[in-house]
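Changelog excerpt

This revision adds worked examples to the README so contributors can see how folded entries look when concatenated. The first example is reproduced verbatim below.
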Amino acid sequence: MILDILSHSSRSRLLHPRFAVAFDWLARFSPDTPDGRIEIDGSSVFALVQSYSTAPAAEKRMETHRAHIDIQYIARGTEAMMWADAARLHPQGPFDEARDVVFYDDPPAMTSLMCEPGTFTIFFPSDAHKGGCSLLGPVAVKKAVIKVRVD
């Protein structure tokens, strides 16, 4: 798991061969971009642009992905993203290969990451995470989640 600001992304670009194209796209990203899926490099790198209001962490679910690494970038608003080591969690059910997701029961303790405009997180397959969590009440958020194929 990584939490950083976009202006420091040069440090993260070298962690995966497809990260450079993802961060190049984020450098041009506008908060006015309509919600939806945007192909960046075919199915290897794509963005899911989202607008929503944050909610209490208890209303969100921890998840991991096997085929993709998430780069989650906050363009507007503020949210907490929760993190835990997936190896320590109990799955709620089987892995959904079509959606590339498995959900988990909440652990007794999680790390809370404060995410503001201009910040990004990177969640690798071993990183259980849940975003969209409110800090002091609902906040409107505009976010781009870049999905980077692992292989």
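The second example, added in the same revision:
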Amino acid sequence: MPVTDAYLVAGEPVCSVVRWRSSAAASRPGRAAAVSGDVVAADATTGGPASLKVADVICCDSVGALTGILERYPGCAVATAPATDGEILAVTRAWCPLSVSYRARDAPGSGALVCAIFVHAWLAAGWPLSALRPARLTAVTRWAATLTPPAPVPFLLYC
């Protein structure tokens, strides 16, 4: 079944909804239509070493801070940082750096965090990052959660 849209619902109560829309349908036979779970997110600037060690996703304040995050914190699957206007750079263990466009319209929030959770959920669903074309997310609601202290963030990614 071709997947042309994916929605991420994250936080509790719901803190954010983002949408991804494919420019061309990508067939993913045998893949789940939805995946859910909890992701531990941490901020590299405010999180202490103990919290960063248990984080699944880590948000950095600059692209330069991404260097070595995955090596220093082997439990981290995705690290993100704001790059240029509306762009978030995501690094994962399975892929070269991925630039994700995050359009918030009138719903500003932490684009780096939402993108990190989306990429983590995408990988958890078993979908290859190469199918994330275009890598463009649109905020449907604003992100209202904070990362202090790091805590599990429930998520649901569905198509």
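Reviewer comment on example two: The longest strand covers residues 16-27. The chain is about 15% helix and 40% strand.
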